[in-house]
Model the fold of this input.
Amino acid sequence: MPNPLAQAFDPAVWPTFAFVSARVSGLMLAAPLWSMNAMPRSVRAAVTVVLALLLTPLAPRVAVPDEVLQLPLPMAMELVIGLAVGLTAAMIVQGAVLAGEVMSLQMGLSLGAALGGNADLEAEGVGQFQQLLALFIYVSVGGHLLLLRGVAASLHTLPPGAPVELASGGGAAAALFGTLFASALSIAAPVMVTLLLVNLGLGVLSRAVPQLNAMMVSMPLTIGIGLVAITVAVPLVGFAIHGWMSGLPGDVTRVLGAFHPGP
Done:
């Protein structure tokens, strides 16, 4: 394979490098781990350039458009393709975060961030735990590498700069948001059902024993039982997230298939 560094100085390769960089940039903006705010922007920019240099020899040569106004739309499409690939895994991770927030709300732990002055955090309490669990499984199955392989494979199925079907591809990318709510519901369901039964039991108990102060008992009881339910459900949640992450190659293939070359 030709030396990527040597090709980078070839003016004939610069258009191809620009289009590949746009596709990789979309991945870096959406994919878990690559898009983490903890990684400095300069580091992410350097990683994007290095990955684009490595992937440029795999892509067909892109010709420079005859007019400058013909360049922004194809570049934007490359960014959208990279975003769609990254969203296949990002929706699963964010689904775990959403499930943690719902569980915190059901348990009453969501009041801690507001009362403690940490309301600006992206995820707190159970949401952070679920996010770390999803990221750990994502890295353990090599999800960050699977997405890179998907981008590399897309350079052949969807040549950079070639017209693609935006309607079907956009519909497939929008359908990924359904994965967000489906995964969140699957993860939070055991704890939500448990807390619902606890609240029903407290309601029946308060009616049977009027002297019982249900408001004073419900908060520590729901928090304690909720934490126990989360602990018991961790193996089931981890198994479910592992299954979703293992299906990333199929998800990436399905999304890229929706962006089939246009006329």
